Amino acid sequence: AAKARSVTKDDSGSQVVLATSWDPDHPPEHAFDGNDKTFWTTTGMFPQELIITFPAMTKLVSVEVRAAGVKALALMKTDKLKPTNFEDLSAGEMPAEDGIQIFEFKFAPTNARHLKFIIKTAFDDFVAVYSLAVRGSPA
Questions:
Q1: What is the largest CA-CA distance in the chain?
Q2: Cis amide prior to 47 (ω within 30 degrees)
Q3: What is the pLDDT along the chain (139 residues), one digit of tens a residue?
Q4: Inter-CA distances, 13 with 98, 105, 121, 122, Å
Q5: Can you list the positions of beta strands (E) in 29-81?
Q6: Integer Cα distance of 47 and 12 in angstroms
Q7: 13: Cβ–Cβ under 8 A, 6 or more apart, which residues?
Q8: Between the CA atoms of 76, 51, 83 and 61, what dihedral angle is there, to the nearest 10 degrees?
């Protein structure tokens, strides 16, 4: 079996195909660039969503989120060719922190072609997502 690794790094072929917020200084791709100084920022209301498409079917094992201001999160996935018919994967609440919050979703290995990351609620009007580290291997 292939060892789990980041499946969202710049060289992985994964792409952000939808983001409900976009700021030219803090685009959604910043959540995957491996740089702790950059981030994706949301603008205003919630929920906010990102959809990531993997280059091929991928066996997901965990997602680590590094963010600021996020309260409740959810993950959904689909194994369909197009990003439709999403199913619940995991959900959780992030701890209230003054600095960067860290939350890890762990779940039974599951195949996905697309992953939806949903910020359901926040502690403030805006949040910053510094990192979405999705770990898995080719399915």
A1: 43
A2: yes
A3: 556 676 776 667 889 999 999 999 999 999 988 888 999 999 879 999 999 999 999 999 999 999 999 999 999 999 999 999 999 999 999 888 888 999 999 999 999 999 999 999 999 889 999 999 999 998 8
A4: 34, 22, 30, 30
A5: 40-41, 48-68, 70-78
A6: 27
A7: 54, 55
A8: -50
